[in-house]
Amino acid sequence: MENIIKVENLCFEYEPGLKTIHNISFQIKKGEYVAILGHNGSGKSTIAKLLIGLLEKKSGNIIIDHKELNLENLYKIREKIGIVFQNPDNQFIGATVRDDIAFGLENICIPREKMDELIERYAKRVRMDQFLDHEPTKLSGGQKQRVAIAGILAMSPSIIILDESTSMLDPRGRKEINELIRELKEDKEMTIISITHDIEEAKNADRILLLNKGEIVGDDQPETLLMNEKLLLDLHLDTPFALKVSRKLKAQGIQINETLNVEELEKQLCQLHAKI
Ligand SMILES: Nc1ncnc2c1ncn2[C@@H]1O[C@H](COP(=O)(O)OP(=O)(O)OP(=O)(O)O)[C@@H](O)[C@H]1O
């Protein structure tokens, strides 16, 4: 599969001499689901802003879909990328869910009939079609984020960036959004970048880029990277819940395979229980 994002030796600083992003390079393939994982202040959101051209790099290259991100290509590249931010309340423009999903489509002058069709289709896609005439302010956090995602999907981007988009949600809202991301991943139509400090969210990705102090310190599959408890602890990150429990049980002499997956842990515990 070809690369849709290529970042080469990227450097950025907010203030002269205070390097926030240090010489990072990575590539993301079309249709891949990549988590950029790091603790607070590691530079995750800065990378998201650089990728959509909200911040200007100091040096290096960002190539999106074979085009270099520069002033000339900025608007063309932005059409390819949709971004969902952290705070669901800051993302609403419309008075109703329908108006809100319509906003981006109106900006690119989609005819009314086609627009209505797209709004219906993507509201359904995020299971919000029953709420089209509701006021966004009266929705739950998870529902608001689903509407924000519908607005982005309706614009048919090639890449969607979720910048800590579940961090302000309650467990139910978080579960809703994570399920939706998993479904989008199954479609394989879009490249998904999830920016997160949540290890449980990162473990669903195909690949994790681990960030610390503006540098990439790990680039691997979750099954490999998240098994390294010491590395995670050193970076002030938690260990996945299922791994923590399975390792503790193993240390107690219980025959169990280490796993990152809660469902897999449950399965093993049920099998053990059946043997007692
Ligand atoms: N506008 C700004 N001006 C100066 N420094 C900034 C600015 N925005 C962020 N920083 C600093 O840059 C570093 C990286 O910030 P960034 O927001 O990218 O990290 P993050 O990993 O996304 O953190 P969080 O999870 O807390 O959002 C931090 O040290 C932060 O204090």
From TrEMBL:
GO terms for cellular component: ATP-binding cassette (ABC) transporter complex. Keywords: ATP-binding, Cell membrane, Membrane, Nucleotide-binding, Translocase, Transport. InterPro entries: AAA+_ATPase, ABC_transporter-like_ATP-bd, ABC_transporter-like_CS, ABC_transpr_CbiO/EcfA_su, ECF_ABC_transporter_ATP-bd, EcfA_1, P-loop_NTPase. PROSITE patterns: ABC_TRANSPORTER_1, ABC_TRANSPORTER_2. It is a peripheral membrane protein. Pfam families: ABC_tran (PF00005). It is found in: Cell membrane. It comes from the Bacteria. GO terms for molecular function: ATP binding; ATP hydrolysis activity; ATPase-coupled transmembrane transporter activity. Residues 5-238 form the ABC transporter domain. Belongs to the ABC transporter superfamily. This is Energy-coupling factor transporter ATPase. It comes from Faecalibacillus faecis.
